[in-house]
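Posted in: Protein Modeling Q&A

I'm a second-year student putting together a small comparison for a lab meeting, and my supervisor asked me to include a predicted structure for Ion-translocating oxidoreductase complex subunit C. I've never done this before, so apologies if this is the wrong subforum. The sequence is pasted below exactly as I got it from our records. If anyone can share the structure token output, I'd also love a short note on what stands out.
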Amino acid sequence: MALLTFKGGVHPPHRKKYTEHIPTKRANEPEIAYIPLQQHIGAPCNAIVSVGDTVKVGQKIGEVQGFVSSPVHSSISGKVKAIKEYPTPGGNSLCIIIENDFKNEVHESVKSKGDIDTLSKEEILEIIKEAGIVGMGGAGFPTHVKLSPPKDKKIDTVILNGAECEPYLTADHRLMLEAPEDVVYGLKAIMKVLGVEKGYIGIEDNKMDAIDSIKKAVANEKNIEVVPLKTKYPQGAEKQLIYACIKKEVPSGGLPMDVGVVVNNVGTAAQIAKTIKTGMPLIERITTVTGSAIANPQNLIIKIGTLFKDIIDQCGGFKEEAGKVIMGGPMMGLAQYTLDVPVIKGASGILCLNKKDATLPNPKSCIRCGKCVYICPANLQPLYISAHALKYNFDKVEEYKALDCIECGSCSFICPSKRPLLHSIRVGKREIIAKKRKQNK
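Accepted answer (user: helix_wrangler)
Welcome! Here is the predicted structure, written out as tokens:
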């Protein structure tokens, strides 16, 4: 079996054994749900409920303010106790706080939307938009926006990302084993919206059981191909996945649509399928709860708005003192300063590391070995971008095409001097973006 891949990349320890063979189970419902009005890239939602209102499961409680936005829905039934700022994984955000009545009353709007064979592409797109579906691999980009390319961008290919290349995380792996039909159904819905005849599902070869599972699900689908990928990080990054699957290279500063491709996560596709079949919007997700500090690692189906601390308690709590808790994986996840943050739509993992695993080594001087250049999947020169960023020479940072950086962290991982290359590159990118925004104003 030929395995496809991309140039560069690294091989961090997988550490997926904690959860990859454990069937997914449902987490306990929260007594109180803290539902942020912004769980996506773009404009936050406006609350359309008030304190004291009774809400039901699946009811829309936050309405979009612009095209690049995504509505939010109640994951439980109960009473709205407050609408206020509260810590979330990305910083403080306005949240609708709902006290659970545990009646699980489903809102009247939640009902089957039909079938993709009878629904028009416009109807499917509207269903996706109204369900608040966003990229569930962690990025949180509104899916209806991604499926609405400009008219001058001809899309001919859809690729589903089943690589799940981040260490520790196995939520997508379990999904492909337990609900392969939903993954394929969702892909077919996406293909219909875009008018595309060819679809691919890329899966790394450290998930052979998932490859077999999805291959069985597409056995009668002539236009869908399962692509076994070489296990390498960041195999699941959009540009790298596109090159591995179909050998198209997204140009510098470009997007996948520039080469006629749209990429979605397998979790996003499965949610589209569930919403079409049942009418239920995005109110829960599979999250991997794992790491060296957690007592009982597992994959849980968690209601949006459940606090990290409650989920960690359901997994037996910490077996030793945690040095760091991260939303997502160790390479691209967000470290949290408190456990009083809610699970959001993009929470692919809750990674709990002990103090030993969380301790960063002291950086030394760059030895000009060039390893960061050799492995950079975006074909950049991280040592120079970092050096200019540290000297606040942001014009040079831009000249070295820092905005093409996908922030995968491979450079920091491979650096023998343990320099925090990614951190300084991020600072440089944000300064460039801030400058451009100021100029545009």
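A couple of things worth pointing out for your meeting: The longest helix spans residues 421-440. The longest strand covers residues 78-86.
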